[in-house]
Amino acid sequence: MKIDELKINSYGKLKNRDIKFQDGINIVYGENEKGKSTLLNSIVNLLYGTSKNKRGKNVSDYDKYKPWEGEEFSGKISYSLDNGESYEVFREFSKKNPKIYDKNMEDVSKFFSIDKTLGSQFFVEQTNVDEDTFTATVVSFQNEVEVDNQTQNILLQKIANTSSTGDDGISYKKAIEKLNKKQLDEIGTNRSQGKPINIVINEIQRLTTANRELEQYENYKYEIEEKKYKIENEIRREESKSRFLNKLYNINQSKRVEDEKLKYNETKIDELEGKIQELIEKKEDTKNKIRNVSKIKKEKIKKWPNIIGIVASIFTAIFLYITTKNALIFILPLVLGCILGYFLVTKVKKINLYNEKITREQESVINYNKDIEKKLYEIDAQISVLENSQKNQVLEAEKIKNETLKNLDDRKNNLKFEYTNQIDLTTLNYFMNSDNIEHEIDKNTKMMNEENIELHRLNLDKENILPKLEELAENEERILEYKENYEELIKKNNAINMAKEIIEKSYQEMKRNVTPKFTEKLSRNIALITNNKYSRVIINENDGILVELENGEYKNANLLSKGTIEQLYLAFRLSIIENISEESMPIIFDEIFAYFDDNRLKETLKNLEKNYGERHQIILFTCTNREEVALRDLNIKYNLINL
């Protein structure tokens, strides 16, 4: 297996980096704090995912490498297996499962199993190497091979542990002791007190009892929600009615405005009618005046009766005087004749005055006849104009009335259609035919106010029980957490028991079969690395690690130099890499040669290239040019990657 390419969008301090690897030896060069260790860690996280679990570290990989500024926390790794199959894996580090594509760029993610805790197990299934094994063998992190007085025995113990248990960090006896202590401290038993499993059981019982009392508030909450749902629906219906009624009110108001316009037009028509009547009356008055004046005639004086009376009086006076010779009788007819004469003269005078007046009036009528006829013509013209104006006004009023009625009917029908799906038809028809929309609006407003008050009351009730519900929810979450903890503790307990059984079986199996093969490979590797200075390594329970010197003497590894122990540990890592998988896993070292002198560095690089370079891809992370210089001196090809 080899890594072909890395694409880092954002991971820790690395952003928008594309890195291509080749077969053989690859040197990743960068000064300190340039991101070498970050790049190495990104390879692990791209293959196995980024855990939020600290896993013994001060800070989890997720928290350590997640960008602060919100960049895309993602990357892609391309690699090839020994069988020729190649894959591209794109991973958003915040998600457990990546997208996996084969060499035909087909998405094959679904073909690999998924662990609910660890995510997709594609790389484990392809190589049979889990993350812990990968980081314990394939990858050697910075300073892991550094040996000082305090760590020398630790490294030797790792080698001894591997030969006896298959894991450099596990000593059989210490492992069993630690597992027993771990089982008691981290889990506990039915008889223990204050241990995790006892605490979890007590908390589950306590919270369950508390929740029985709090569940009544949850039932009340459902009642409130049901009432709220009904009221909110009713409010929505009333709001629809309110909108409909207000629009209908506006339409009716428009009708009132138009009615006022019609009334105004009718008033104008009535005014015109009044003016026409006034002119007609004026015309008739004028005509009557002419007729009345024309009817007046001069009176004639009837003189003959009076004259005859006077003559008769005179003759009577004379006759009486002759016949009677009485002066008194003679005077009476004569006085009567005088009286008749006086009346005749007075009447003639009066009639003459009257006739003179009539003559003057007739002359006045005759003189102004033309002016009166002109006025009558003007009145007729005004009447004609007013009648035409009245006619036009009537037509305009009729037109406005018809258009208004049609427009209002259309608007009402459109409004009714608009709200057909929101208000039932019976209610719509009732509103449409109502003569008092203002009253309906008031009723609607009152109902909405009452419903909003009730809704507000329910919201207050809900707010009052929210703390209880939150407590109930928190308790339920805590119960689930405790149950999960309980299950985890049971699983952990079972796992520890199983681990103890497996360690025992593995220990016996390793002693019989694996240890001899492992020490043989370890011996071969130390011989190659040290140019046969040390050619054999023996590991036993009594003496620990023994190394055969050139003269055949066996020397305890504790007595070797620091440099030799460093070489021994490197040989140990190479021996493990060859056994962990059928795939030829890459060899990835971060500053592993920092404490090698130049001769040891060259010998080690020459051995790596000769014995591992063809089958394994080698990636060396360094902050110096020592590896480059050594490889050039050895005339060994390499691929340089600058960070």
Outline the structure in words.
The protein has helices at 36-48, 61-65, 122-127, 131-138, 152-165, 172-186, 196-295, 303-324, 327-418, 425-433, 437-529, 562-577, 598-611, 626-633, and strands at residues 2-11, 14-20, 25-29, 74-80, 86-92, 99-102, 114-115, 119-120, 139-140, 536-540, 544-548, 554-556, 587-590, 618-622, 638-642. It has 643 residues and is an alpha/beta fold. It starts with a strand and ends with a strand. 20% of the residues are buried. The model is unreliable at 145-156 (pLDDT under 50).
Comma- or semicolon-separated keywords:
643 residues; 14 helices; 11% strand; rod-shaped
Structure in a nutshell:
With about 650 residues, the protein is of the alpha/beta class. About 65% of the residues lie in helices and about 10% in strands. It has helices at about 35-50, 60-65, 120-125, 130-140, 150-165, 170-185, 195-295, 305-325, 325-420, 425-435, 435-530, 560-575, 600-610, 625-635; strands at about 1-10, 15-20, 25-30, 75-80, 85-90, 100, 115, 120, 140, 535-540, 545-550, 555, 585-590, 620, 640.
